[in-house]
Amino acid sequence: MKWTSSQVQPNKIRTLIPSEQELETLCRFGKEFSDASNAGGFCKKTFLNSIDTFLKSQKAKIFVLDNGTNIVGTVGVYAYKVFYNNVLRVQEIFWWVDPEYRNTRDSIKLFNKVEEWAQEIGAD
C-alpha cells in the first residue's frame, strides 16, 4: 500500500539514532520514569553517561517507537550469557511508552522488535 499525505502515517519501530534531539527525548523518558517510580531523583548527566556506555556495548540495543514527528516510546535491552549454563539471554534494562501510546498495537510492536532481535542474535 502506498501512503498519501491525507492518510495517517504508520508508526515506525527503529533503532535509536543518538542525536542530541533523540537523547533529549530519552532524558525526558528517564525523568518521567524516575518520577513515576519514586526512583530517588533523576540526574541528567548520570543518565546520559549510562546511555553512552550502553550504546557503546555491542551487546545492547535501544529501539524507539517513532510516530513520524516524535519518539513516543523506547526500550533498551542487553544480551548476556547466563553464568551457570552459558545460554544467551536478552533482558530489558529500561522501557517507556508515552501514556497515550500505551496499550496500543504499536507498543506491542515495540516489544515484538525486542523478541525479533533476540532471535536474530540466537538468544532464547
Q: Give the overall average pLDDT.
A: 89
- The helicity comes to 25-40%
Structural class: alpha+beta
Give the strand order of the largest sheet, numbering strands 1, 2, ... along the chain: 1-2-3-4
The dominant shape is: globular
Number of helices: 3
Largest sheet: 4 strands, antiparallel
Task: Describe what this molecule looks like in 3D.
This protein is α+β, with helices and mostly antiparallel strands and 124 residues long. 38% of the residues lie in helices and 26% in strands. The chain has 3 helices and 4 strands, in the order E-H-H-E-E-E-H. The protein is globular.
Summed up:
This protein has helices at residues 20-37, 44-56, 105-120; strands spanning 12-15, 60-66, 71-81, 88-97.
Break the fold down into its secondary structure elements and pairings.
Layout: E1 12-15, H1 20-37, H2 44-56, E2 60-66, E3 71-81, E4 88-97, H3 105-120
Antiparallel strand pairs: 1-2, 2-3, 3-4
List keywords for this structure.
124 residues, alpha+beta, 4-stranded antiparallel sheet, 3 helices, disordered N terminus
